[in-house]
Every structure is written in structure tokens, then in C-alpha cells.
Amino acid sequence: MSGKLDDAGMDLIFREARTHNVWLDQQVSDATLHELYDLMKYGPTSANCSPARIVFVRSREAKERLRPALAKGNVDKTMNAPVTAIIGYDLRFYDRLPELFPHTDARSWFTGKEELADATAKRNGSLQGAYFIIAARAVGLDCGPMSGFDQARVDAEFFAGTDVRSNFLCNLGYGDASALHPRSPRLDFDEACTLL
């Protein structure tokens, strides 16, 4: 497959996309969340390990469970967002490798190698988190990704008894563009890149 995304597509997912903190009173459908995931899952991960695990926090009750873990500056925007996704990663991702990468014994690469498995889970889970943001924008959602939460508390509340750990949070919905600040600058190519 070859080709190039047109300018409208590039604007949608990158150039005109913004981080939102204020949300319109418009719900996000289950179908949209399924569409988001069904798009993001195709982003590449090493050995197709796919360690990302996502909890979509939507109900008032679930938001209240999340509230005590939030940094003060993240409370209002999170409680008012239609959806808050907890983007996590599964430290035992390799148990699924016989299914996800069946042409070799990739599970043995990680079994008993906790440091390698942890680094692989976090790195690839972070990649999938970035794909999540791009996919969310591609299906018409605005995003508010953030740190600023008590990871241990979120893990205890939402991932107790599992091998999943939280990485970051991402508010989702339809942002109020009138509440945006001017876009912050970005580094130019020559400031961030080296050609060798």
C-alpha cells in the first residue's frame, strides 16, 4: 500500500489537532470507542506484542473512583470529560505471543527475563498510547492526554490482581475550541534532528 495522507487528514491528526481541557456536553458512543480501538490496534509493536490495555472510565461512579488519584490541576477537566481512558500495559504480554506472533517461540524471549519484559511492555505500550491518540483524532474525537496522577493508586483501584500497570491518562470527547490557548511552539527540524 502506498500513497500519502492528504492535507485535511494531516491537519486532523497533527497540525490542527490540539490538547483539550474543556469539553462540550456531548457523549462518546460505544461504537466510536470500538472504532478507535479497532484502528489503533494496527500500529506496529515489537513482535506484535500489543501490551496496551485500556480502561474507558465513563460513568460518574467510575470517575469518582479515579478522582482521588488525580493531581489537583487535572480534577475538573477529567471529571467533566465524557471519557477518560486509562492507558496501561500488561507486564505479562508475552503470554499472548503464541497467538499474536505464532511463527516462532517469542514467548521464550521474555519468560524469566523480568527486566526485558518490563521495558518491552512499557515501550510498546507507550507506542500504542501514541497510536491511541492518533486513532482518536482520526475518528473525530479530541484528546487531553496527561500525566499528573498517582500511578500506584490507579493501579490498585483499576488493575488490582492483574499484571497491568497504568502509563498515562487520556481524556476523550468533543473539545470546546473557544477555551483553547494559542498553540505552543515546537522545535524546528534542525533543533531536534540530525542527518548523518
UniProtKB/TrEMBL annotation:
CDD domains registered for this protein in UniProt: RutE-like
Occurrences of domain Nitroreductase (ranges): 24-158
Enzyme Commission numbers on file: 1.-.-.-
Keyword Flavoprotein assigned: yes
GO molecular function: oxidoreductase activity
UniProt entry keywords in alphabetical sequence: Flavoprotein, FMN, NAD, NADP, Oxidoreductase
Taxonomy, superkingdom: Bacteria
Pfam family, one: Nitroreductase
Cofactor: FMN
InterPro entries (UniProt xref): Nitroreductase, Nitroreductase-like, Nitroreductase_HadB/RutE, RutE-like
Family: Belongs to the nitroreductase family. HadB/RutE subfamily.
NCBIfam families named in the record: PRK05365.1
Protein name: Putative NADH dehydrogenase/NAD(P)H nitroreductase C0099_01470
Gene source species: Pseudazoarcus pumilus
